[in-house]
Amino acid sequence: MIDAIHHAAIICSDYERSKDFYTRILGLPIIRETYRAERGSWKCDLAVGATQIELFSFPAPPPRVSRPEACGLRHLAFAVADLPATVRHLQQAGIEVEPIRTDALTGRDFTFFADPDDLPLELYQAG
């Protein structure tokens, strides 16, 4: 019935800052960028493999209940080929990254960091 996740939507507080983070720092290519005048809102579709992130801006969005243990979406996880190299890249860009841990169930390494609005993001060592 369901074949894949098509996209995840993120509402940011500062569109230019978040667009810079997701495109320049994380390296996600822009598929399309649209200004919706009737909403005073930007929408930027970003490619993540076969999936997309829809980055939205809205005037005065309410703050998000954060941290992974809050009810709702826990976090977004990105598969990476070289976790230590990705962590170094983020740290060189001034992004704080938690220490790398090992998933007790899969034996794979992972870590967490946050986007400009403190949305928890995970890096997960791919196969």
UniProtKB/TrEMBL annotation:
A Pfam short name: Glyoxalase
SUPFAM superfamilies: Glyoxalase/Bleomycin resistance protein/Dihydroxybiphenyl dioxygenase
Domain VOC per the UniProt entry, residue ranges: 4-126
CDD domains given in the database record: VOC_Bs_YwkD_like
Listed PROSITE patterns: VOC
Transmembrane spans: none
Domain of life: Bacteria
InterPro entries: Glyas_Bleomycin-R_OHBP_Dase, Glyas_Fos-R_dOase_dom, GlyoxalaseI/FosfomycinResist, VOC_core, YwkD-like_dom
PANTHER family linked to this entry: GLYOXALASE FAMILY PROTEIN, METALLOTHIOL TRANSFERASE FOSB
Protein name: VOC family protein
Organism listed in the record: Gluconacetobacter tumulisoli
